[in-house]
């Protein structure tokens, strides 16, 4: 079995290449890649519970909590216990967090250009990766 013939290595190499391409773009925003993913969820849905955020990002609470602490320290989010359920914590964007969205609008375009895929290839890649994830997660 050759390394280059392993799907797992192709996924690993592609993931590293893409996240490396994100780094200079996100450095300008003061975000790491995982923090950017958290912000993407919040830009789509604000507020969101920590549980729903973890589900959306497929992250455990132990991984998510340090990310949220750093984003809160940076003044981009605010966490608070929900009045209707004290066990649940809501995450909300601050004004600075909401404003950062405008600065981040160029990131997906730059990454898309770097990938060099046609719209059809992009759609196919996403479809296959989602299928792979679902199969491995539930299989």
Automatic annotation (TrEMBL):
Cited Pfam families: Staph_reg_Sar_Rot
One CC-aspect GO term: cytoplasm
SMART domains: HTH_MARR
Keywords: Cytoplasm, DNA-binding, Transcription, Transcription regulation
Top-level taxon: Bacteria
PROSITE patterns: HTH_MARR_2 (PS50995)
Subcellular location per the Swiss-Prot or TrEMBL entry: Cytoplasm
Family annotation (InterPro entries): HTH_MarR-typ, MarR/SlyA-like, Transc_reg_Sar_Rot_HTH, WH-like_DNA-bd_sf, WH_DNA-bd_sf
MF (Gene Ontology): DNA binding; DNA-binding transcription factor activity
Chief location category: cytoplasm
Domain HTH marR-type: residue ranges: 4-134
PANTHER family from the UniProt entry: ORGANIC HYDROPEROXIDE RESISTANCE TRANSCRIPTIONAL REGULATOR, TRANSCRIPTIONAL REGULATOR, MARR FAMILY
Name of the featured protein: MarR family transcriptional regulator
């Amino acid at each position: 079995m050759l390394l280059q013939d392993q799907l797992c290595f192709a996924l690993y190499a592609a993931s590293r290449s893409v996240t490396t391409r994100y780094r200079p773009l996100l450095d300008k925003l003061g975000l790491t890649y995982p923090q950017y993913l958290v912000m993407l969820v919040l830009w789509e849905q604000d507020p969101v519970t920590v549980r729903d955020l973890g589900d959306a990002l497929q992250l455990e609470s132990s991984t998510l909590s340090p990310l949220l602490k750093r984003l809160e320290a940076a003044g981009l989010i605010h966490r608070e216990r929900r009045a209707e359920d004290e066990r649940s914590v809501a995450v909300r964007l601050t004004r600075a967090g909401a404003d950062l969205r405008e600065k981040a609008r160029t990131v997906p375009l730059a990454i898309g250009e770097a990938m060099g895929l046609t719209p059809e290839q992009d759609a196919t890649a996403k479809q296959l990766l989602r299928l792979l994830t679902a199969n491995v997660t539930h299989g």
